[in-house]
Amino acid sequence: MIAKWIVLIGCVGALGVAGCGGGGTGSMKLGEVASLARPGDSTKIYKTYKYKAAIVSVKQAGPNDLKGETLLGDTSKNDVAFYVTQRVTGVQAHYSGWTPEPPDVYDSSGSQATPLVTGTDLPQCVEHRPPAGFGAGQSFETCDVYLLPRSDHVGKVVLPAEGPGQNDLTWKIS
Description:
About 0% of the residues lie in helices and about 40% in strands. It is mostly beta strands. The chain has a 6-stranded antiparallel beta sheet, with no helix packed on it. Strand 3 and strand 4 form a beta hairpin. The radius of gyration is 17 Å and the shape is globular.
């Protein structure tokens, strides 16, 4: 299933919501929290999963982190890996079968980074799924790996919005 992110229309500063508003793209610093909603599965009743998300860290992989890994697809062996960690907090009770979508990552010039696909989890960046019983008020972190050419670095991490009048949520990386 391919899902996209939806920014809630009602943004309230007192709740720690960032990146919302009319026109333009919201820009946040690492760790700033945004309230989001994601369309869920549609059977007889359409559910929206509401939660808070924050990009909490972007770290460059060490020189030996990918040594011995089998890289799948058209991955360049000369690229550098970056670990992008997202913290997710549940704000409603039912999340059965739900998982957050990975963000889009861009270099400093605006070119999109390549998501890394390996045959195994990397010990430095294990993708975490919501724990059993994940619900309102609970948090967990998920990590995704992206590749950029050696001369580049991560410039921004984006959770794309869906729908008219809604903005992407962008965390600027300095």
